[in-house]
Amino acid sequence: MEGTASEHRPKAVMTQSRPLSTLSSASTHVDASPPTTLPRIGPLRSINTPEPPVDLEHTTMEKRPMVDSPPEGGLHAWLTVLGSFCITTAVYGLSNSVGVIQPYWAEYQLSPFAVENIAWISGANIFLCLFLGVQIGPWFDRYGPRWLLAAGSMIYVAGLVGLGFLPEDCDVTARQGVRAPGTLYGLLMLLWGIIMGSGAALCCTVALSVLAHWFEKKRGLAAGIVFVGSSVGGAVFPLVLRTTLPKLGWQWSMRILALIALSLLGMGNVLVKGRIKGRRGSGAINFGCFRDASFLWTTVGCFSKGSGVGRLAAGAISDKIGRFNTMILTTVFSIITTFAVWLLVETHRMWLLYLFAALFGFGTGCVISIGPICVGQLTEPGNFGQYYGTSYSVVSFS
Questions:
Q1: φ, ψ for residue 303 (rounded to 5)?
Q2: For every residue of the chain, which 3-state class applies, written as one string?
Q3: pTM for the whole thing?
Q4: Are residues 70 and 216 in contact, defined by beta-carbon separation less than 8 angstroms?
Q5: The domain 74-286 is classified under which CATH number: 1.20.1060.10, 1.20.1250.20, 1.20.140.160, 1.20.1410.10?
């Protein structure tokens, strides 16, 4: 038995000594190993080839905060809605008061001019307010709301303050040595038309675009609330002017308006907050969005305006039945109102005129609040400023 064990032990030692000999002669086997190990490296490299997709996924994860889902509410979201409401009250509300200001120009400061020539001043204000959005929108997408809103507020209030230093009428203008009335017309065009129009473009583009940062499903309701501000301002500012113009005159009336606008815009600057970090890009004008047929026809459909009740109602309804469905229904409603009521208006049935004004204003008012929401539905929140600004730069020609 011992001999048998001794015979097996060397074999065991020999079997264990083979790897030792292999290790001792590692140089010999290393030289021979490359042909066997090289094919193994190939599959390892092929397994590692999915690394670029992993990197791409990592980069998309880093960009997700720019396009993540809006919170659909919360304190900051509704405070932003309130701030945007204050902005539209100050800017659009004063623009809607031109029915009081323009007759004053025609009677006092610009009496030698025809009414159609005076209308160019307010027309320039509205045109620039919409048209300049084509550049302001990309700026908003890149830089956010803070500085654009601050700059627009200062420009707008500066225009109102400048109006407060203009003469009361043509006779005063002549006594002050200013060539009347051409120079006064130019100053009104500069201050009301160009300066205030540019400031309004900055403020309103930001006030509407920032809603896309906070709302998606409730964006219609939020926009409807914001656009009610223009109707509130359009009701309040004329009452103020009808009281102050006869008693205090032009200069102090404009200074009071400047103080009111400063208060409202100041609240807007404090309350409005952006949520999405600016996207990379040049911030330059880009008309590439017109290649999207849906965006193009949505822009065509925004050539209208209307009342505050329609703006609020349409915003809430659109969240339930869809934005484009609401746009179609309100457009059909306006067409039916035109044929069913407007064509029947006669001198002895003036009540039909008031009925038509209420119904048609309700129908077309929906377009004001739904138009930007339909545009926003065609793009991500991070690009809303560009799409909105480009769309309403075209609407400015309507």
A1: -80, 75
A2: CHHHHHHHHHHHHHHHHHHHHHHHCHHHHHHHCHHHHHHHHHHHHHHHCCHHHHHHHHHHHHHHHHHCCCCCCCHHHHHHHHHHHHHHHHHHHHHCCHHHHHHHHHHHHCCCCCHHHHHHHHHHHHHHHHHCHHHHHHHHHHHCCHHHHHHHHHHHHHHHHHHCCCCCCHHHHHHCCCCCCHHHHHHHHHHHHHHHHHHHHHHHHHHHHCHHHHCCCCHHHHHHHHHHHHHHHHHHHHHHHHHHHHHHHHHHHHHHHHHHHHHHHHHHHHHCCCCCCCCCCCCCCCHHHHHCHHHHHHHHCCCCCCCHHHHHHHHHHHHHHCHHHHHHHHHHHHHHHHHHCHHHCCHHHCHHHHHHHHHHHHHHHHHHHHHHHHHHCCCCHHHHHHHHHHHHHHHCCC
A3: 0.63
A4: yes
A5: 1.20.1250.20
CA angle centred on 261, ends 259 and 264, rounded to 5°: 110
The predicted-structure confidence for 265-294, as pLDDT tens digits, reads as follows 999 999 998 887 765 554 555 556 656 665
List the chain domain ranges: 18-57, 74-286, 293-377
Q: pLDDT (tens digit, 9 = 90+) per residue, 128-162?
A: 888 887 778 788 888 888 899 999 999 999 999 99
Confidence of residue 317 (pLDDT cuts 50, 70, 90): confident
- Other beta carbons within 10 Å of 142: 18
* pLDDT tens-digit map of 22-68: 444 444 444 444 555 544 544 544 444 444 454 433 444 344 444 56
Q: How far is residue 374's CA from residue 287's CA, in Å, rounded to a whole number? A: 18
pLDDT digits (tens, 9 = 90+) for 351-366: 777 777 777 767 666 6
- Dihedral angle over CA of 288, 293, 299, 301, nearest 10: 170
Amino acid present at 245: L
Return the half-sphere exposure (C-beta side, CA atoms, 13 A cut-off) of residue 273: 9
